[in-house]
Structures are given as structure tokens and as C-alpha cells.
Amino acid sequence: MTQPLRHDAQTIARPLWLLAELTYACPLQCPYCSNPTEMAQIGAEMTTDDWFKVLREARELGAAQLGLSGGEPLVRRDLEAIVAEGARLGYYSNLITSGIGMDEARVNALAEAGLDHIQISFQASNAERNNFLAGSNTFEQKKAMARAIKAAGYPMVLNIVLHRHNIDDIDDIIAMAESLDADYVELANTQYYGWAWHNRAQLLPTREQLNHAESVTTRYRDNGGRMKLYFVVPDYYQDRPKACMSGWGDLFLNVAPDGLALPCHAARQLPGIEFPDVREHDIAWIWNESPAFNHFRGFDWMAEPCRSCVEKHDDFGGCRCQAFMLTGDMYATDPVCAKSPSHHLITDVVAEANAPTSARAEAQPIVFRNPKNSKRLHAT
Ligand code: FES
Fold first, then answer.
1. For ligand 1, is residue 326 a contact (CB within 6 Å)?
2. Which atom of ligand 1 is found nearest the CA of 321?
3. Could you identify the atom of ligand 1 that is nearest to the CA of residue 248?
4. For residues 111 and 83, what is the distance between their CA atoms, to the nearest angstrom?
5. Can you tell me the ipTM of this complex?
6. Is pTM, for the whole model, over 0.80?
């Protein structure tokens, strides 16, 4: 079957990428986590059978890739069963994990269940910084699990989220990845959603830090380095927005732990959109018919300057969640865009991050991601 034109309101594409956020529970407390800060208030997790229904219906609609994430998906004791069901249905499955809650037996059990791919995250390249950012002594366990994943025959895929507090260690991070025999390394600068939004003043690197990290990465590649490095620049240092999720409701279907179907991981914060529950509706209706998934399809919703912009076919106006967080208007042009009348909301924050001392960063300590802080943030 021919894939319909992308992001055309008349011809809706298929949800090729299903991201199953199995839980918001996590033993780590990373302050850049993109999970919602109100996670402690979010309802009970779905059952194994609920997830089987989601997998089955999404697959019938054409979903091919299954991401298993969280929180920490290893917290779910039924993870192996969900992986096995995904394999039975013909998904290519990818576990996105911190490695905490894993041991060699569990790696082997997941492989036997049919898991195709594992990505393991590190917070930093040394124990002190890793454990500080994770809020627990997990560095050695992570290294052991990275080795166990490789020993089980998986490609070694590392993810390190970069920010002000670890980006200067880029040489050491690459060396650590080499020592773990990594094949692919995602050097993903923090994007500012969820907990990272709350800690933005603490986490945004300076331009000098960013340039240094990018030049070290480029040098590694130019010298014929064995590993494949992916370097993701933070939106805040761009002047054009990303085509978030490849367009709203175009490719990506996120199902949250409480059963909400979302076009992206951050959408539940958008006001006035009722996101459907996968236990009350089937995935075909959610994807094709629901008002939520049709809300930002096509171009009719756009205001200027996006509406008449020749680049709207490339970026679809940028990220709806970022536009809402920065301007309070989810229909606004993403302020990352230099054509946005609100672009100063980005450049002001960047200027502050590059000032000799950042008053905001000093005034507000890092808020770590945990249920206590979630309740505290939302008590007022
Ligand atoms: Fe929601 Fe970009 S994260 S549209």
C-alpha cells in the first residue's frame, strides 16, 4: 500500500511509531526528564491486557515500530509479556531504559521474548556526576548492564542527555562509550519539556559549551571514529523550529501510562483538547477520527506568520507544546523560529545562559524528578 502524503488533513498517514510509556515510575530522579511534572497526580497504570489491546489495534492500523519507555519500563514486571506480544504481532521493538532494574537474566529473558533493540542511558561519564544527576548510586550498574546488553548480541546504543552540568565532559563521554564498545551514541542536548522546563535556567548550556561539544564530536567523526555519533542541538540555539513529531498525528502515537493517547509526550498540558483514553476508544477511531488527533493536522489552524510562510511544509509551525509553554498560545508560531514575534522569549533565555553569572540559575536550585517534588510543585 502506498503511504499517503504526510501531514495532509485529507489523507491521514499511518501511526508507524507507537511509543508505549508503560509507567511514570522510575528509580532515578533526572532533572531533565521530559515526563510531566504532575506525574504524581496522574491516574493508575494500565493493565497488561490494556497494553495488549493497544498493541493489537495499533498494529492493525499499520504501526511497525514499538518503543517501550517510561519512566523506567523495567519497573513493570509484565515487560517481558508485553515484549512477547509485540514480537508476536510483528513489531520491531526498542526498549528505552536506564538499565536500573535489569540483570543478565532479565536481558536474556527480554531477548527470548523477542526484543529487537535496547537503548541504555547514562547521566555522565563518571560516577560522581552520574550519581548526582540520577539521584542514586547507579553508575557501576549501568556499565555492567551496558556490557550485558552487548554480550547478549544487541548493538550497543548509548544515550547521554547533555546540558550545562555535563557537556564539558564530552571527551570523557566519548571515551566511556568507546570503553563500553558502543556502536551508536546519541548525544542529545536537553530539550525543555517537563522537568527540564522547570530546571531550564540550571540546564541550558552556554554557546561556548555547545560549540566545544559539537567540535569534539565532529573531530571524532573526521578522524574516522568507529562509533556512530548523533549530536542533537538544543532548540534554543536554532533559528528555525523542528518539525516536531514529523507533524501532529502524522507518524507518532504516544500512549501514556494512564491510557491517554497523545500525539506527543508533552501534549496533555495543552488546554481545551480532550485526549482520548485507549480503554474507551479503539486506536483507529483515536487516530483517524478523534478531535484531538485532528486538531493540528493540515495547515488551516495556523496563524501568521506561519500561515503564509513558504517553510510551513518543512516544520509545520514547529512544536505546539513549546509554543504553548513559552507564549501561553498553542496556536502561535514556535518562538524558536526567528520569524516569530515572540522569538525574544528564546533569545532572552539564551542571553541569560551566556551571561557571566546567571542570577536565575543561582537563585533556584535544581529540582529533581521525584514524586515528592511533583506533589510540591502542584500543591500551589
Ligand atoms: Fe508536543 Fe512538540 S512536544 S508538539
1. no
2. 1
3. 4
4. 9
5. 0.95
6. yes
